[in-house]
Amino acid sequence: MEHESFCNLSYEMVSSVLDRDSLNIEEIELFQAIHKWCTSNSEIGEKKKVIYDKIRYAAIPRKNLISTVRPTGVVNSDQLLDIIFTQDGTPKEQEVHPYRAISVPGKDVAANAKVEWTTNEERNQACFKLGKRYFINYIHLNLNNPTNSYYSYSKTESLSVSSDGKTWSTVSTGTNNYSYFTSHPSVSFLEQQVRYIRFESPFYDSSSNISLSAILKQE
User: Where is the BACK domain positioned along the sequence (predicted)?
Assistant: First the structure.
């Protein structure tokens, strides 16, 4: 979209691109490309509003909303506040401006994920950060050297995914005296947009050297 030829695309083609849920571009970069296109195609008149309304502003980081989007005048102060409220709101409200994600079937998109560990009294938590949002429907946990291999009473583990790090969807959970995921390391679920994967377990911690694969499988 950075290529000059993008400005020569028709209204119909640009509108079709904006309707897609799968685009390998950050929303702020998409906004900048669309703003340039609208500036270069002033003859479309009121259709500009239709194009701008297809931008998913809630997916743009707040600092970019203020520093890049607001100065263009495309959204006014009240609209900007509405966008921020949407970002801070409930998942139902956020569905008005769903995120876009990258679709790369068969590729392990977690190969270079960054892992952050946190610990509390009940369980340890590993958060895998993919860096971008991807469509996935399968996760395989590579588990080695549990810190605590067995408890005298049952413990709960869970695997969850999120597109924004705020709202989480649990895709698998198990309760046992030993790690449930040791014998159930592969998890399939309905295709989702995912940027963060959270593994919670009392059996593993940062010294356990665990990793995972995240893939969009297609039949």
Answer: 2-69
